[in-house]
Amino acid sequence: MGRNTAVVIDDDPDVRALIVNILSSSGFDVIETDNGVEGVEAVFSHDPVITTLDVNMPGIDGYETARRIRERSSTYIVIITALTDEADAVLGFSVGADDVVVKPFRARELRARLLAAQRRQVSTATPAVGAPVIDTLGWNGLKLVRGAHVVTVDDEPVSLTRTEFDLLATILESAPDVRSKADLVHSVRDDPRLLPVRDADERAIETHMANLRRKLGESAATPRFIETVRGVGYRAITSPVEV
Question: Does the global pTM surpass 0.85?
């Protein structure tokens, strides 16, 4: 993966130029396209750390673009959209997006989000000096190998987005403690001081958790791996569970 490469996919030249400027000034080499088909090809060719994309584009829209990208790439996908309905954000996460930013956005906040995403990608790809190469977590048939970025359930592989993987790792590492939604927002941002936690951020965590549970094959009503502590947050189930 190109550690300082980003792809921007947006058919609005003004918005595209603004995002390219934000990324370029933050040290990224930026490849820009104005449609989803070329954007998918650019991601596959350049293997970027971060990909931003618009929703309403000619040809294939942002959701289909994200879905195609996610089939072959673990790039951090940020959907930037003028759509404000919560269902639109849920759809974005369901097709593999890691974050959703609503237009109009503040350039400083978008820069902070993108830089935090870059740090997360690099920190998970490059183990710290003296750290074990592989760190394995899990119970009840669930196994997460952080160094290899692998998750299995009953020895069957589970494909997760970067954000879903990081949420699961955070919850497992915190066991038996509960992690609040705000805690989890901070953990996936990797820079809690610059960005306030808003209601929309906590709702995004709820959506990511719903997607994560679906992929792990469990439900909130009958959890096998993660339980919801009502009014508090989420906690790993470490005791044996009958399946």
Answer: no
